[in-house]
């Protein structure tokens, strides 16, 4: 049964259909006792360490986000807590496309990967998981300045132009992250996937708006530091959720640079620790830099620049006329006049017309199934733009429903035919529909022939904005790009299921008291069948040390862990940090 199909969080309920399609059930019962132990270990380490190096709202933010140390968060509990600060959360299956991720942020909804990292990746995983998304992103959401930045970033990112290369890189990164989280992944396959990611990163061509925005997102939301260069604090979710890199990032060899628009020049590799990090003085600076970058984007610049970006992207895009009319489709052609202004545009394939992001009745992609074309610009001999002419002024110009009209544009394009109807809203004319219409350019070439049917001419002096995606996504029935590569869900063998039972016995003892199971039996089974385990042994030692009832057993387990740390380097830091917390336990206020 779904953990959150009722959408009773206001922010989640407001999501449009094209975003809801990514939501998956959390399936809370699928989390194993080992999964909960991984969560608990990471959260205890985070709480112990991050209280000194994280941006100050982090610790109280955990509570405000509905998180505890003891168990993986239930999505319903998170939504109940986040609703109090105007946010929500949904679970998804691994990486989702960047454009969709950004748009979720604009709707003030956190996207949380339902899966949790394996024990062998407890320090860091390149795959999105519930530790990264909830323990990383959610706590800082409580800070008003930060969540304003996050939602504003989402609204900007949702309009960013992306390329075919962006999709190819996304697929490569998703495939690699899935491989790395598979228990028995073939090393040769992982190496091949890593090489593909590296190749695609190196052969992206000119970075798209989305690629550049993703860099700003990475160096702020994921790996950002705040404060001074000498004494920065962590606020980035990638650092907050990595018990390895949250410590190593503070070392001198990791360069600390002031966060400016120059951060957009730095690419990143999700599989490696970061060689440099950026420090912002405050969250307002993040908004200032974002605003600076947004000024270079197509949705702000419009015109020839924006339309050319739309053509290059080969994706569904929207061009906005100065009248407010929005044309959504795949743009394939533009013409410009001598002044460098757009004079003509054309789409190929299904196209829709909208106003204020709502599709105009009768102008969906089924009606304009073969594309759309229209002039852009001022009429020849008129001081006012066509969209601003009054009914009387239109009549004076010979433009009246039921009568023949000839319209000449300054660009040389001529439209002649019988005016069937006109559409206007909010004091501006947006559309003139002609029958028996001919459209010619200044060279006399036919742009529309009467035999092609009814001609709908968009009205507007300029193209003021161009952005990726349809204006009315749900009416356009826009199915956002979804990967065909599914995340890995393991099938546990009998040996692993028995290990889960041992972890559960320790968990029961911690929650239900001293009489609930003898830890010595758990330890014997671990030694006999799971000698490679360290986390369950650590949890047993923690309980024994706290209860101070079986000193001989505690000493035996401690020797085992110390020997493992000394002889197996990959466990040294994990075990040493775990032993430290046994002697210096975390405060209890987040345990319940």
TrEMBL record:
Residues in Biopterin-dependent aromatic amino acid hydroxylase family profile domain copies? 1-343
Q: Which domain of life is it from?
A: Bacteria
Tagged with keyword Coiled coil: no
Cofactors demanded by this protein: Fe(2+)
Pfam family of the protein (one): Biopterin_H
PROSITE patterns with a match to the protein in the record? BH4_AAA_HYDROXYL_2 (PS51410)
Q: Which key words are in the record?
A: Iron, Metal-binding, Monooxygenase, Oxidoreductase
Family from the record: Belongs to the biopterin-dependent aromatic amino acid hydroxylase family.
Protein name per its UniProtKB record = Aromatic amino acid hydroxylase
- Give the originating organism: Mucilaginibacter pankratovii
